[in-house]
Amino acid sequence: MLNKVDFKALAVAYLDGKLAKRNRLKQSSALDIEG
Hints:
1 helix; single chain
């Protein structure tokens, strides 16, 4: 079983990954528009 701290850390890492992916998509689309 995961304890609550482990679960929280996993959830945070997962959300950070999703946000990073979204930011990367935003940046690449912005670069496409500028280019």
